[in-house]
Write a structure and sequence with these properties.
single chain, about 25% strand, four-stranded antiparallel sheet, alpha+beta, 1 helix, three-stranded antiparallel sheet
Length: about 150
């Protein structure tokens, strides 16, 4: 009978065990260092980007700044409303349209593609493109092209 042989140590297994123990020891040492240093606050990556959600503290010293002028109203208001012209413009025709753009035949016969916010020479800016009763209407600063 043969004598039992001692277990063979595989070099790869030994290397993996040593690496695991070394990494665990390094992690514990780093954590101990970070927690024991009183002058260093723990830092979480990306937390500075969350500062936009922070609310100012109500307890503590209040900063005194210049008082706002009493005659200024800081209430937010809407913009000045645009008057929607009611005059139906003759000589113009809408050939095709969507809620964003329209093809318009001008009185001289030219065809122009316009967008909401665009401009038509002589009529000003295009305020809106609307559908009324199955027909398109283009509202400009000087009047309406198409059906009302």
């Amino acid at each position: 009978m043969r004598a039992p042989q001692p277990p063979r140590i595989d070099l790869i297994d030994a290397g993996l065990k040593f690496t695991g123990v070394a990494l665990a020891t390094g992690s514990v040492a780093f954590a101990t260092h970070m927690l024991s240093d009183p002058g260093h606050a723990p830092r979480i990556t990306g937390v500075e980007h969350l500062a936009i959600y922070a609310r100012p503290a109500r307890h503590g010293p209040q900063q005194s700044g210049p008082a706002p002028a009493p005659n200024i109203d800081y209430t937010p208001v809407g913009s000045i409303s645009k008057k929607t012209p009611g005059a139906l413009l003759a000589g113009y025709e809408i050939l095709d349209a969507t809620s964003d753009w329209a093809l318009v035949r001008l009185p001289e016969g030219r065809i122009l593609r316009v967008w909401r916010g665009g401009r038509i020479g002589g009529l000003g800016g295009v305020l809106d493109i609307q559908k009324h009763g199955g027909r398109w209407a283009l509202v400009t600063e000087r009047g309406t092209i198409g059906a009302r």
